[in-house]
Amino acid sequence: MATVDVHYIQAALNCAARKGLETNSLLEELGIERAHLKQAGLRIHGDQMTRLVQTIWSMLSDEFLGCTAHPCKSGAFAFMARHSLNYDSLEAVLAQGIQFYNLFTDDIQMNMQQRDNRVEFEIIFAQPELDPDFFYQEFWMVIWHRYASWVVGKKIPLNQVSFTYSEPDHSSELKHLFPCQHYFSQPSLKFSFSADFLAQPPVRTQRDLSQFLRHSPADLITIPGDEQGFRARIRALLLQQGNEVLQCPSFEALAQQFNISSQTLRRKLKSEGSSYPQIKDEIRRDLAIEKLFSQKLSVSEIAHTLGYSESRSFTRAFKQWTGLTPTSYLQLKR
């Protein structure tokens, strides 16, 4: 888990205090001495920051942490993410997310523009004075950069970031959050990255998203990197396909793509507690449930897209995964 500068602990506590919450109990629950907040440069474990944000979210029932004129009800980000993840490119995922929040609230407005080979993601807070420590303004940019990186399974390098305020005392920490060129006292909050990423398909399923949301904001606080485990790389490879029907290459062909022998790949997967048949089953299970609920496809259509020659084979496999037939599973979950 990453660490964060103590500034962000204090800034989050200030958000809570402005809304009338008692902060001593919050610090006690986190196991942080108030005196530590005055130690410039002190770094706090990311788990503590995650717990603090989760607690304030819960106590305020506000995903905007009290930094806007109107609260954002709990579950808004999850609703947006579940909807947007159904789209087939990062550009579409981000566009749907932007449209959701622009319709949902006037407190934060966003837009995305492509200029040559660069994407500019712009954010405008209606009343930035409600966030005097700039905590949520920076956190909101972090959320969208990290979420985009999570969707495609790799860290998206930033070209530059613009801030609406003058360079703050914690500017050195901003270099950790946004490792790129910084510009201060600009008309709007903005970050930019290569447009090459826009066409990349999501490598995450709705099941992955459930785990991501369960741990949130841990995966947003932690800077994402390219996932180097072979299980993650194989999942990304299979999920990145643009084919109508899921294609699973032979194990030997897969090993060749990674420039290693079949024996080495099998050994590495075993060390990760996984295997190729297990990975294929997990992907088929996740996609089957997703297509059943989100895309509302028929059993025969799902069987076809997952590479089964007949519906009966798919139904048997689904029952092995869940203990129920697709029809019974759908009725139960409804």
TrEMBL record:
SMART domains linked: HTH_ARAC
Location of the HTH araC/xylS-type domain: 232-332
GO cellular component, one term: cytosol
Residues that span the membrane, as ranges: none
Database matches in InterPro entries: AraC-type_N, Homeodomain-like_sf, HTH_AraC, Trigger_fact/SurA_dom_sf, Tscrpt_reg_AraC-type_HTH
SUPFAM superfamilies, alphabetized: Homeodomain-like, Triger factor/SurA peptide-binding domain-like
Keyword Ribosomal protein among record annotations: no
GO molecular function ontology, one term from the record: DNA-binding transcription factor activity
Keywords for the protein's UniProt record, in alphabetical order: DNA-binding, Transcription, Transcription regulation
PANTHER family attached to this UniProt entry: HTH-TYPE TRANSCRIPTIONAL REGULATOR GADX, HTH-TYPE TRANSCRIPTIONAL REGULATOR VQSM
Annotated protein name in UniProt: AraC family transcriptional regulator
